[in-house]
Design a protein that fits this description.
The protein is mainly alpha-helical. It has a single domain (about 30-130), classed as Alpha-Beta Complex (Cytochrome C3), CATH 3.90.10.10. Helix content is about 30%, strand content about 5%. It has helices spanning about 1-25, 95-100, 105-115, 125-130; strands at about 30, 45-50. It starts with a helix and ends in a 6-residue tail after the last helix. It binds heme C (3 copies).
Length: about 140
């Protein structure tokens, strides 16, 4: 009896895992990181790929840190997230979302940390992410 309960619990857990794997949203193709509508940019826009070195993060929340695991994943610069083009610091700042040195969610914050751990390919120089426009 007790064994049956354990077996059915294990089966239920496996099923739940399979269902959640099926329901996981797809990652989009490589492309430029979105910028708030009407924003004036000072740098060449930075691209992003979910592949390469980022594939090791199977938990999407490492970057999509406010995602509840169910709803659609939002753009970083959604109105209620990082859409402030003026501030260089703070949770609403567009700039800080990608460069805050102390945040594991920001490109630069994470890259600094993984570089210390020996992952040399993580770019930390401006021009590696904002290439000078050709011509
Ligand atoms: C690991 C990649 C990465 C590095 C390194 C990096 N940035 Fe960015 N930066 C981004 C991303 C992503 C955005 C948001 C998308 C965009 O605007 O390109 C951004 C946006 C910006 C913006 C706001 C948008 C604009 O164009 O005005 C500025 C300013 C900026 N970066 C300057 C810098 C400077 C200066 C450096 C070097 C100190 C730097 N970045 C290093 C990834 C990076
Ligand atoms: C290393 C960081 C990182 C990880 C891990 C990550 N993403 Fe992303 N994702 C991004 C960035 C950066 C963007 C571009 C956001 C933007 O343009 O504002 C993005 C964009 C997206 C978008 C498009 C959002 C939109 O409408 O613009 C989806 C969908 C998405 N990711 C799904 C996923 C899923 C699913 C996972 C986990 C399997 C995942 N991501 C893991 C960084 C990451
Ligand atoms: C949570 C950590 C984390 C975040 C956040 C993150 N990265 Fe990375 N990134 C990595 C790691 C790890 C590597 C691989 C380094 C290596 O293998 O040497 C990498 C590598 C890269 C590379 C080199 C090519 C490749 O894929 O290996 C680029 C370009 C890059 N990241 C851009 C970005 C940009 C742009 C953002 C922000 C929009 C970002 N990353 C956010 C961890 C992160």
């Amino acid at each position: 009896m007790r064994k049956n309960i354990i077996v059915s619990l294990a089966v239920a857990a496996l099923l739940a895992l399979a269902v959640s794997a099926m329901a996981a949203p797809k990652v989009p193709a490589d492309g430029p990181v979105k910028t708030p509508a009407g924003a004036t940019l000072t740098q060449a826009v930075c691209g992003f790929s979910h592949g390469g070195g980022h594939k090791e993060y199977t938990d999407c929340k490492v970057c999509h840190h406010t995602w509840d695991g169910k709803a659609d994943i939002k753009t970083c610069s959604s109105a209620d997230c990082h859409a402030d083009m003026k501030e260089k610091k703070g949770g609403k700042s567009f700039y800080a979302a990608f460069h805050a040195p102390q945040s594991k969610h920001s490109c630069l914050g994470c890259h600094k940390e993984v570089k210390k751990a020996g992952k040399a390919k993580a770019p930390t120089a401006c021009t590696q992410c904002h290439p000078k426009k050709a011509g």
